[in-house]
Protein 1
Amino acid sequence: MAESPELERARQERDAARDAVRDLQERIDYAQQMADMGDYAWHVPNDINTWSDQLYRIFGYEPQSRHMDYGTYMAHCHPDDRDRITVIHQNTYATGKPFTLTHRIIRPDGEVRHLLCNGEVVNDQDGQPVLMRGTSVDITVQVLAEEERERHAAQVQTERMRRQAALELNDTVVQGLTAALYALELEDTDKVSGFVRQTLHAARAIITDLVGPIEGQVAPGDLVRSSASALGS
Amino acid sequence: MADAPDQQLDELRREKQAAEEALRDLQARVDNAQQLANMGDYDWEIASDTNRWSDQLFRIYGHEPQSFSPNYERFLSMIHPEDQERIKALHQRAYATGEAYEMMERIVRPDGEVRYLSSNGQVVTDENGSPIRMRGTCIDVTDRVQADEERERHAARVHEEQTRRQAALEINDSVVQGLTAALYALELEDTDAVRDYVRRTLDSARAIITNLVGPIEGPVAPGDLIRSSPTNLGG
């Protein structure tokens, strides 16, 4: 028996509405995978935490493969970061102000990942917090690249300073001492004394120049060795 | 046994309403998440050159959501001039190879503000393998980029300061002390001791120089130390 046109139209409209939901869900899943970003909604009264598929993947799990409450989430956070996360969450819970933080998580296989997280609290009409929701982006690749850039920046800047100090030592101390040795050969004691004094003055000037911008003139006791030195004498 | 047509009709209408409600909830969820993460997504249909942007992507670019049609030319015009060629090349390669891409690009908002985006995308092909769409996401990472730059400056300062202190310490421990001893020996007119101190101090100074530039270019040989900038170190 054929459907009435009215019934047929209703069926088409229902299917179209369901298709729209599926399309949007597909779009969200795709975008979250591409951006390595997930979102969560923590229903405070019953401690049920809804996670998007990608958030499960970020934490190293199959999507929707396990129940996530606040305790389970916290158990995955790096132990050194837990106190900070708790304080920030409590502050958001109390003040209603959104938060942003980066912290580390440890996946079931032990891999550490860096997340950029944010969240906000949603209150009911009585002002009671009912929902904490937000997003997490896995920024591990960016964090590691940034650490490398910091090391590189430090090396480049220090290399310039090292070359300059080496140049100064060569120009003044090495040349002054070489001159003093010549004078010693010639048994010209006055010249020896002159070169040694001049070189000593130059060496002190180099020291002042090295640490001067940081702490002014070098006085005895200023140069306290903070780490074992590789420079031999 | 089928329900009566009226019951079927009611059922279909309820199901349609439920789907519409689910769509609204999902839309609210994605909008909220994208605002919080400052992330947007795009879907560019190549043949018609129409680009669907999420609301937050418009906001990232400094515009009201859905306030214009972001075709490719319009998109490119909002990219920082210095980044445009690179972005175009990247898109062309993705288009030709079908490979996914990741990039960091600067955009210029209508008020002139420059923002840094971390973006990615992927070409979608039809059943014949021809590209039909390019879709992906952008995250506004300006705050992180600026914080990173500051951290790099700080790391460089700290490292330089440590190295300066250490070099100063070495010069003090060996050169200054060796020369002071040489001066004492001169007072005592002990020429052998003077020669010994001067030689040892010279060795120390050379060792320090090697150590300063050694890790970079090996031992210092004549001509290695070419002055690259005027110095304020006095002799």
Protein 2
Amino acid sequence: MNDMQQNTASFRDPDGHIFSINGQIFRQVNFSAQEDYDLLISSGLYAELIDSKVLVEHEEAVGVTGVGEYYKIIMPEKIPFISYPYEWSFSQLKQAAILTLKLQIAAMARGMSLKDASAYNIQFIGSQPIFIDTLSFEKYNEGKPWIAYGQFVRHFLAPLALMAKTDARLSSLLRCFIDGVPVDMAAKMLPGSSRFNMGLLLHLFGMARAMGGDAEAANSRAGEVKVSKFGLMATLDSLLSTVNKLTWEPPKTTWSDYYDNTNYTDSSSAHKAALVLAYMREAAPHTVWDLGANTGRYSEIGEGIGAQVTAFDFDVAAVEFMYRDFASKENRNILPLVMDLSNPSPALGWHHNERASMIQRGPADCVLALAIIHHLAIANNLPLGMIADFFSQCGKWLIIEFVPKEDSQIKRMLAAREDIFVNYTREEFERAFGEYFYMVHREDITDSCRTLYLLCKRDDK
Amino acid sequence: MKKKILTLAISVLILSICAFFMIQRAANAYIDGNSVMYLFSVVAASICAVGYAIKVYWQKILEFFKRMSGRK
């Protein structure tokens, strides 16, 4: 049965759009993009980028019907999990920025150019960034400035500068400003010392100042001016150098060195890992969401049994450490992301449909929720029934660790506040989760008061 | 003397450019920024081209001397 679904984020580009049929992704190439698409292939650019694994590979689809009149339908490789820039750590956004610039430099060497520089055109397969918009490449016309320059600054340079020089949590601004951080706002938020960075001075503060210029005069002159290829390469080289020089050294937070400060002994830690592995093997998932992944120790167990893992944590430093670690191993199976479970990514953009919420991008086959229940129930005052409901929407299988009030972590949490959590008991936990899941296994973790459960979602939920 | 005048001229130019960018001007969000952006990218390319030319030629000079020292 032909169950065509239009991708709700793919409507701005008149040259084509994305749709899916029974879960398979297709991209329609309209006649307006025929020349550019053919040049992408005939120039050798496509083959070069595929060889270096930086552009999503596609096949030309046969027997698939698109919408209206079109040139071709192509079938791109499926990305395991679609993520958004406001969910990336500093290094992820930086790698995405560098890839965008390198693609533009490679495109120019073959007579092409990127017509946009949206951060949403980059996705991650594990820790490896990849460009997904095959129709972004157009023929380069000598003299024409890089039309995507302003977008690059808004989507990459401004948030990276803010993260590096003001606060790494400011990546969340990208959640408010779907077309990138306004440069005038970034200029106001950056410390004065940023003006001594020549790249930021020119590309960010200069642009912010120019934006306050005379638009009438600019309109009348915009068609007359030209930029040489040398000038354009110089701009790209300067942007690349500016991005490369932006660095952020994450502080050691409670979460980033969590495993060094837990009350687990070596034997309880080993027992927990063995149980997670055994439960995971029983669930045999293709996709795993590790909620509260911290440094990704247990995500690696999911990877070990062949699953694609998305490792969420709300702490930007923990995610940064996790990404650096996996990127150094060129890991292609674990994607670390910043996600606050008490306020997960919502549906955003036009008609609430351009960017999917966290839940809309699931469900996963299996959810790992290790040592997180007390943070949701006690630190965030979330009732156990609501947590169980949320987890049941995240995935079919649930490996969850219950942390009782006798645990030293909870004692610390309650040391300075009144214990109003009378329902936070093992019995109430099992009752609340029992409404959404049936219990497959339950085992106490050696040398600890914690218990690990393997739950499976009820068919009627 | 010529070297001093050249150094002075370059310093004045750099200071002028820095002063232009250092002083923040309020942006009017309602104006169409595209044309301004278009013109600004031309200005930025011109400024970058100076530095890029120096970088490219400096690399060529270094390569020349490397080749020279390699022959010896």
